[in-house]
Amino acid sequence: MKAIILSGGKGTRLRPLTYTGAKQLVPVANKPILWYGIESIVAAGITDIGIIISPETGEEVKTKTGNGELFGANITYILQDKPAGLAHAVKIARPFLGDSPFVMYLGDNLIQDTLNPLLTNFKEQHMDALIMLRPVPNPTSFGVAEVDAQGKVLRLVEKPKVPPSNLALVGIYFFNQVIHDAIDRIQPSARGELEITDAIQNLIDHQNHVEARQIEGWWLDTGKKDDLLSANQIILDTCLVNPKIAGDLDEKTQISGRVQIGEGSRLINCTVRGPVTIGKNCHLENCFIGPYSSVADQVSLTDVDLEHSVVLQGAQISGIHQRIVDSVIGQRAHLKAAPHRPKALRFMIGDDCQVELV
């Protein structure tokens, strides 16, 4: 059994964060989103993993993630030179996959359920494909499945105007080698891509054994800022177990709740209320860090109130005398108060930025 993880794409919904980096490397609770998928796959006993990368961000993914030794896996990188669809990603991965059955995992998805029972189900029932589903309130925004009472998939529809159900496709699929024949039989969609939904529908039309299972735990798509913050909150709530304080705290700093602080970090006159994770080599002084905040490595915060926010590596924030909430601060960003508060607002805002004034 092998696995492929998709880590390409442009991440347009997370701009400007993804102008200079891969969306799958944006951290949730101070761990790249991509790594959660790798860990989930390895926990299911699959250690031969191919990661689909793009020309724009592939080198960053390779540098950050390495050869798999960190995870107890063997990682092969597969370049997809342009975004041509999920089925195209499977097509270019064929030399890596051979005739092995495999799991395909979208690298910007997070799920709570383990893969082990799904993998066992897939193998024992000799399925050709097994897809994961989850009820959603807005099925028109997803690929949607129609299934019978036994879990057999009847048809798939990509972002339907009139959905046949509210069961959205989660970005995790199990396939055997017949999926390659199905991909060879389909044509590009109206948007010029080879769609995995079309390939699965082709399997159904050819009477292959395709089933679905609904996941029980949470499923998080981290494609937008609010999704990223929600994912950060849920991961801190459920996964921050037995946190360690390895940094240096002065006598005025107060810690309550589940708080993790990395080595080399120093907190002076701070109040931290968990769940919170603070990375390595950070400097925090005269700060309040509220629940559901993640502060990455090498961050400097001075005179800052922060809550329900994510601050990425190397950012510096100082002298902001209003609480920062529901925010994502990018790598090496500098945020500070002007020496004299102007009567008018002055901005320098880059392309595709989103600014909220309250």
From TrEMBL:
SUPFAM superfamilies: Nucleotide-diphospho-sugar transferases
Protein name: Glucose-1-phosphate thymidylyltransferase
Assigned EC number: 2.7.7.24
MF GO annotations: glucose-1-phosphate thymidylyltransferase activity
Keywords, ordered alphabetically: Nucleotidyltransferase, Transferase
Nucleotidyl transferase domain boundaries: 2-236
Nucleotidyltransferase in keyword set: yes
Pfam families attached to this UniProt entry: NTP_transferase
Organism: Oscillatoriales cyanobacterium SpSt-418
PANTHER family: GLUCOSE-1-PHOSPHATE THYMIDYLTRANSFERASE (PTHR42883), THYMIDYLYLTRANSFERASE (PTHR42883:SF2)
InterPro entries, per database record: G1P_thy_trans_l, NTP_transferase_dom, Nucleotide-diphossugar_trans
Gene3D superfamilies per the UniProt record, alphabetical: Hexapeptide repeat proteins, Spore Coat Polysaccharide Biosynthesis Protein SpsA, Chain A
Highest taxon of source: Bacteria
